[in-house]
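Worked Example 4.2. Consider the chain below.
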Amino acid sequence: MNNSNKAWHCKSCLEDDYNRVGIKFSEDGIDIYFPLGYDIPLDTEVNLQRKAVIDLLFTLSLTKEIDSENDFTRKTGNATNFPIYSYLWILNDYINNGLYNVKEKRYIRSQTGKVNWKRTFSTVPIYSKQGAIYLDPYVEKDLVVDNIITEIHALCINHSIEQIGWLFGNIEKVNFKYNDKNKNYYLSILDEELRRSFSDKKKTLISNMIAIIKSKVNDNSFEKISNILTLNYNHAWEKMIDSVFGNDLIENYRPELTWNGLPEKVSTIHMSPDTVIKNKKNRELFIIDSKYYKYGVINNGKLPGAEDIDKQITYGDYCSNPNNFDKPLEYDINKIYNAFVVPYNKNDNRFNYRSDIVYLGYAESRARNTTDSFLHKKVALVLIDTKYVIDCYLKKEIKDADKLLDSIREGLLEN
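Applying the procedure from the previous section yields the following structure tokens:
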């Protein structure tokens, strides 16, 4: 299936039968399903839509790292070997730098040619009355990089255009003659080039070419993708929230559960929070559970359940006991905050909010309401704009944890 000239349409995942996120191909066109709460640009804003789809593709790679093969094949099409990142990187690089065809300085042992004394001095000479003699010096030899590398690059570019060229407008295929040899031959050439290359840029290029070649089903044809969809976008939501806001190792806050008295040895179980944020300035600890739920997007959407609330309080109980840790606590046990974060669209929501991050309310458990007054017994519910999270994650340099922490702190202390 050649997708390069197909019309494409942006939709909410709620328009998909299974609320899946990703891209669906058909003979009529391409449907792109965005995650809960994403503010999709208008059809008239083609460049903004194109950027939004590219951003979405990058976040889909987060779910691909976690989703099992069954998750992708059950209702999503055969996309397990679809190298999203590599297609995007190859095409962006091709648009900016053109086809790979550079000259590199190579060094060989020879008696003729311009001697490279730095490399030659690293070898063992023969000594005579006249001094040190280097019988086999290194000489510089300018060679055009093997034409096969350019051939493979052209093949990867053209295949990337077939798969996601529709995102880049009227991008044309490379007019280059190549033979589609078996992938093991290509991979052996690329692996050798990767091994002897010292340029980070070139290593990245070769690595992405390898990923595309590996996506071939057999020796003579590339895998023809149908759909790139996932039921498990919650994994991407969790990972992005942790990347944007988290600043401490989750492993440091994992309550251990053990079975005792059983006839056989049973593995130790650990509970793991999604995200932990430590505010050293105020000696605060924030424990975040990322919930990719519909509550912030539709009426009567799902909220975290009783087991979720109880689990968050358990994390708080664990972190408030200094005996559970080898080192003195770097936070005040009276300043441990719990929160759920769910997606919403700041430009279109029933709450009439317009902020990236909004405190909405909190949950508590009567069974856990003991005589103590620990803050962590209350679990805040916070709305976060989905596009804001994706933008922060992809830009990477943005770290705006204070906005989230202030929202949770102020919301819980007022109640």
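The chain has three domains: 8-100+150-230, 103-144, 233-413. DSSP finds eleven helices and 16 strands in the chain. Compare this with Example 4.1 before moving on.
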